[in-house]
């Protein structure tokens, strides 16, 4: 509820009530059907403040009935009540349309007194829309009508509304002048209810002009009078504005207390939209105090109420506060979602307002009025539409070009990558084949010839035998090394499963040769993993050295190899039940140093740990590409 609403809505209903009473007085001798029709108007008016949805239904029924009976007086009365209900709901354009329908009928009946009331209602509605030039025009017509009628009793209401309009326009000096005029006129009239509203309006003026302590005093004066009158609705409005004073003074406890009083009164009156509005105010204060749980609860309740009742203007404000709440909670993603929702709703409201203005202009064009305005609106909409179309076309074209560029770039990159991969695999196959066929066969020949020479001269030249045995042994070791190099280069062995199988086969062969039992626990998942050649080579050589050391030096009776996946890492553990090994005591031999260097090269975590009561654990943890 904004400052306009504090006094403006009350005066609006008061003027409408006057219109209803005057219509009843003038038509007291009406037939039974007409009197029944009049009750539609009165019931719609009575419901407009507390239950606008029911008031709208009631007024619409009254309009249909008045048209059927051809009763213009009752027809304008129901249009006036419909405008009040729409204004209460926040459907301001619809409210203005309904009031204008009522005004047209009153002008045709030459009923200047009730026309003053409707002009006032139109002025209040334009004030709620922040269209102050139009609000001033309608209020000037109402004031001229009162002067022509020599009616001084309703002038204080005109002055009060003038004070509101000047306040909203930022002219606080003029606003204060007219509000004080209205207070001066209400006093002698002993009009306690209107005086209470004037004090609240004065407090609102002081509030927006940063005279907050004075605003508290005036609002409290208005609340005291409302308490005496037992007017719960306007009492709630008083508490609401007093709470805003305290909120501006950073007195959060007092602000929450008064907002809660306003909320409870609106709940008692079953004013659902006002319940939502007061909940939103409470949520806003809770956001400032850091009570995010209560803030979310209050703001969510307000959001549900505004959504259900179509109060989009209030819903947009509530969305903006929710966005601020989630920013303070550190949830930027949710905050952005609420902010986008608020912006979309704001744009929707602006679009609806534009569409309404265009429809009004078309109606004026059809009645040969304001032809220039409709032409300008159409031209403006056409230019905006063309601009939007051009912008949309450019955006679509840009997106398409970007997508095409990305696709082409990805295809070229993929093609180059596949081509490089194929070239690499072809080269690796050639190297593996050459090593196996040429170097491997040559080393095999050296071993075979050394064995033949050994057999022929074993008795005649015993001193040569160790050299031949060394040649044969070195040749055999070179054959094994070449075999390992060929295996590591060959693209057919690029799967992680191939490496695990190779390690298991090597460990089995070596352990069987020393009568050591060996067990393998492979817990890798089913999907295949392709690993680079360098990674595969270094892991194999690390664990080949580890298995060799365990078999040769540990004195173990059992060796175990574990292979499993931990998240995006592959874990290999080699353990034995041998004499144990402490790297700190054993020094830093070439084998251990090479193992560590190979682990660093592939950016793996490598550790050697003693086991209790005996044994050694070698662990390697490496990321799977």
Low-pLDDT segments: 2-11, 16-36, 360-371
Shape: elongated
| DSSP helical segment count | 23
The CATH C-level class name of the largest domain: Mainly Alpha
Instruction: Please report the distance between the alpha carbons of the first and last residues.
Output: 60 Å
Radius of gyration: 46 Å
Succession of helices and strands:
HHHHHHHHHHHHHHHHHHHHEHEEHHEE
CATH topology of the largest domain: Serine Threonine Protein Phosphatase 5, Tetratricopeptide repeat
Largest sheet: 5 strands, mixed
Structural class: mainly alpha
Please indicate the percent range of residues in DSSP E strands (runs of 2 or more).
Answer: 5-15%
How many structurally independent domains?
Answer: 4
Mean pLDDT metric: 80
Per CATH, the architecture of the largest domain is Alpha Horseshoe
In spatial order, strands of the major sheet run 1-2-3-5-4
CATH superfamily of the largest domain: Tetratricopeptide repeat domain
Oligomer: single chain
Annotation, overall tally of beta strands: 5
Residues in helices, as a percent range = over 70%
């Amino acid at each position: 509820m904004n400052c306009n609403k504090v006094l403006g809505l009350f005066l609006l209903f008061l003027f409408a009530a006057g219109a209803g009473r005057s219509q009843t007085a003038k038509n007291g001798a009406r037939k039974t059907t007409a009197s029944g029709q009049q009750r539609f108007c009165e019931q719609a008016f009575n419901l407009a403040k507390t239950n606008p949805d029911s008031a709208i239904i009631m007024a619409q029924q009254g309009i249909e009935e008045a048209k059927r009976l051809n009763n213009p007086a009752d027809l304008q009365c129901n249009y006036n009540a419909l405008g009040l209900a729409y204004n209460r709901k926040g459907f301001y354009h619809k409210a203005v349309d309904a009031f204008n329908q009522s005004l047209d009928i009153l002008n045709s009946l030459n009923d200047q007194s009730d026309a003053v009331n409707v002009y006032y209602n139109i002025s209040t509605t334009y004030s709620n829309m922040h269209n102050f030039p139009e609000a001033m025009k309608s209020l000037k017509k109402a004031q001229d009508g009162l002067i022509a009628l020599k009616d001084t009793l309703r002038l204080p209401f005109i002055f009060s509304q003038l004070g509101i309009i000047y306040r909203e326009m930022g002219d606080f000096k003029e606003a204060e002048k007219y509000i004080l005029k209205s207070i001066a006129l209400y006093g002698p009239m002993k009009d306690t209810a209107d005086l209470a509203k004037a004090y609240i309006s004065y407090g609102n003026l002081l509030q927006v002009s940063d005279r907050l302590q004075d605003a508290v005093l005036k609002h409290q004066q208005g609340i005291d009078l409302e308490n005496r009158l037992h007017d719960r609705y306007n009492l709630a409005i008083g508490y609401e504005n007093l709470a805003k004073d305290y909120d501006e003074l950073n007195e959060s406890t007092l602000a929450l207390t008064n907002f809660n009083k306003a909320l409870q009164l609106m709940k008692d009156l079953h004013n659902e939209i006002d319940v939502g509005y007061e909940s939103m105010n409470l949520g806003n204060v809770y956001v400032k105090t850091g009570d995010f749980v209560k803030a979310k609860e209050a703001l969510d309740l307000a959001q549900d109420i505004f959504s259900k009742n179509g109060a989009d203007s209030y819903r947009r404000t509530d969305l903006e506060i929710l966005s601020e709440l989630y920013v303070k909670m550190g949830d930027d993603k949710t905050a952005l979602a609420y902010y986008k929702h608020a912006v979309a709703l704001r744009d929707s409201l602006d679009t609806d307002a534009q569409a309404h203005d265009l429809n009004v202009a078309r109606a004026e064009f059809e009645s040969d009025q304001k032809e220039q305005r409709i032409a300008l609106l159409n031209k403006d909409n056409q230019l905006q539409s063309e601009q939007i179309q051009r912008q949309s076309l450019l955006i679509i074209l840009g997106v398409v070009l970007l997508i095409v560029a990305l696709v082409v770039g990805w295809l070229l990159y993929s093609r180059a990558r596949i081509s490089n991969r194929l070239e690499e695999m072809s080269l690796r196959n050639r190297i593996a084949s050459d090593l196996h066929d040429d170097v491997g066969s040559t080393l095999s020949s050296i071993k075979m010839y050394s064995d033949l020479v050994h057999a022929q001269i074993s008795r005649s030249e015993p001193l040569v035998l160790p050299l031949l045995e060394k040649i044969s042994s070195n040749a055999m070791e070179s054959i094994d090394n070449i075999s390992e190099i060929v295996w590591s280069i060959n693209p057919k062995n690029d799967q992680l499963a191939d490496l695990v199988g190779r390690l298991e086969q090597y460990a089995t062969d070596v352990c069987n040769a020393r009568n050591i039992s060996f067990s393998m626990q492979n817990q890798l998942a089913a999907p295949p993993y392709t690993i680079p050649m360098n990674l595969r080579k270094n892991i194999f050589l690390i664990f080949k050295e580890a298995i060799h050391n365990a078999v040769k030096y540990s004195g173990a009776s059992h060796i175990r190899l574990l292979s499993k996946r931990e998240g995006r890492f592959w874990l290999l553990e080699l353990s034995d039940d041998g004499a144990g090994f402490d790297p700190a005591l054993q020094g830093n031999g070439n084998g251990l140093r090479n193992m560590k260097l190979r682990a660093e090269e592939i950016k793996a975590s490598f550790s050697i740990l003693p086991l209790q009561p005996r044994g050694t654990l070698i662990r390697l943890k490496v990321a799977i590409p």
